[in-house]
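User: Structure please.
Assistant: Input sequence and predicted structure:
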Amino acid sequence: MASLMTSLGVDRLTAEEQLRLVGEILDSLAERPEPTLTEAQRTELARRLAALDAGTVTVSPWADVAKSAESLGDRYVFSWKPNPAVMADPAWNPGGIRRDIRDFLERTRGCVTQIVMKDVHTCAHDPRRLGEWVRIAREEVAREVDAHG
């Protein structure tokens, strides 16, 4: 959603125009055969999306996630770049990857987040790792959303 708003040039809109745009986006979601948001969720999402006008803050793999989350809150998109070295490690460790992503999601609860695996130059001759990493990330995000909204 944040990338959609950025691609629409939200940073050039007034606060009122941003809220109208957010409302239009949420209305289009509600028109689906099975609405995915309750009215309370819709209102909270609109409030959080309206706060995105300040932009995205990229956070390195070596930053203190909890401290960064506290500083950013829901005023910015917290763009986390996990350490890409996990892809090249000779000992593939899906459990460790899951643990790292889960820890990130727990520490950033209440923040607007995105996860970007970047700067992957090798995957130890096993390209299936890339798909598995994505699958694990999606599962953990779904688990967090199901548990905490």
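Residues 55-149 form one domain.
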